[in-house]
Amino acid sequence: MRKCPPPPQFLHEISASSGGHRTPSTFRAAISAISLLCIVILAGCSGQTIPVEEGGTAAVQPALSGANLNKGPLSFPTGFMTSVKTYGAVGDGVTDDTAAIQKALSDGRSNASGDYYGVPKALYFPPGTYLVSNTLQWVGCCVTLQGSGSSSSIIRLAPDSGGFNNTSAPKPMILTPLGNQSFRQNVWDLGLTIGSGNPGATAITYVSNNIGSIHNVFVKSEDGKGHAGIDLTQHYAGPLMIRNTEIQGFDVGIDLQNAEYSATMEGITLTSQNIAGIRNSNQLINIRGLTSTNKVPAITNSGGFVVLLDGTLSGGVATVPAIETDNTMFVRNVSSSGYEATLQDTSTSTPTLHKGTLTHLVVGTPSTLTGTASSTNGLDLAVQETPSFTSTSLSDWAVFTPKWYGDTSGLQTVLNSGKHTVYFPFAAYFSYNEADVTVPDTVDRIVGFSSVVNTGAGTNGGGIRFVVTSNSTQPLIIEQFGYGIKIDHRGSRPVVLKDAFITNYASYPGAGKLFLEDIGINSFNIQKGQQAFVRQLDNEISATKISNLGGSLWILGLKTEKAGTVINTASGGQTELLGGLIYPAVPVSSSQPAFISTDAQTSYIYKESVYCSGCGYSIQVQETRSGVTQEITSPNNKSFRMPLFVGYK
């Protein structure tokens, strides 16, 4: 299903099997008359910049281990957003705030079939405990719920709430819109608590498509009961990201069920579940930095495809394995204690127990074109964490405020103000002609706060292009834009793009390191000598989607649509793909490889979904070394799994 084409014309599909298209829509001419919500959304506000070592290779860092929550309270610029208290919510932990919060969520959202792609919504929960007694839900895409910290802003389901006591009919406290047009649904810096006496409760039933994340969230069941902390079993969850999140209690911490579209998780802590920490059926999930303290399995995988890096699984009992799987898995650097074994593999007729620390393990058969697949560890590129930045004082923030709808003339002046953080108050902005601005060394962070920049038909299709010519070693972070943003990366300064749809990213020779986290993107290339670290990327162009022209590219979680080569690596480049869902959804030329490498080093772990004749890649991998080309082929009308491809010597 096509779910996030470049605006303003964007196609939506309504069925994974039929591939039926809805009529392309354009932004309403009257959008300038819409009363825009003045809400600012701030995510990832903890900590100073994480230093990034310079040089030709990535710095080796300790393995990521579980969540590291920022409990809050976080600080925001004065008057930067409308809060739920504007709608009457109290947040004293005693008053029932259900109606007030629901009023805030429903304001301007009465039409469930309305097109809200260019009209996002965002709501701030100031410090407090917001007691609710029924499901909170909304219609339409592009909604952000922003708190002030995982222990500072809490949404709590009242004990013994009606309708939440039936374990055979689970009921969510928070319910996002379902389907495959539930774009950019975000839950950031909140606590989600289920009061006692609600055994049928789920904290959140979550669907977000293409991009969207749960971040810095603490999910807790006060009596340990409840169906699930995070329920991802509805059609069509993902691609999405869950990062820096802790779940305590419930039968299942994170529950997944369907084949599409994939979930990427990083920095996850699970404790005291009753059935499983993560229960996966059929889904592709990519996990890095998992800490589980449980007597039950940390992960059960039935029919799914799991990539697990850096796991510490403790608290087990001698009769239960830490991981149970009957299908494809790739495991690296995972240890267990107390359990019968670290992993039980039942994918063959003879079940196998794998004990001790698993430095690397493949459940499935690795492939290679250059001899035998003797390595089961993949390329194993060193990983760097995504940098973050928070100004030490709110006086160090500069706000961009247009003089009128469509005005971008003052943006360069704001960037040149000397402030370290430049922010766009939450709104729908407009740029008919492309506005090119250069980001000076003094700016460390540009925050869109879930805003969108609606584009026109003027010069270069409108939007805002941030040009980075700096050679500073301080990373530049650009985050939280729905779309309308373009990046020219010309200098050696590291660039970080987070929680955004980027219309275009162009790197030039000498460009610095690139970090992508929960990103939708149209165009993406890596230069010779450049390093890129990618978490949860969605790319849907009808051409070569990613070009590695001699750099180093590490990807955890990738989802693509349409025909065209997924990754082309050349000129001595290194590419490691850890978990990809390849979903062409259209006929693919029989001569078009999914992955191409020419005199390069690569390893790929992915699966391909195919639902129509000819809608798969006939050539999965094409590898050329010293002028000799070899290929791995497959039927183009059947789905395909690659547990591990080893393409290096």
TrEMBL record:
Residues 82-280 form the Rhamnogalacturonase A/B/Epimerase-like pectate lyase domain. It comes from the Bacteria. This is Rhamnogalacturonase A/B/Epimerase-like pectate lyase domain-containing protein. It comes from Tunturiibacter lichenicola. The lineage of its organism: Bacteria, Pseudomonadati, Acidobacteriota, Terriglobia, Terriglobales.
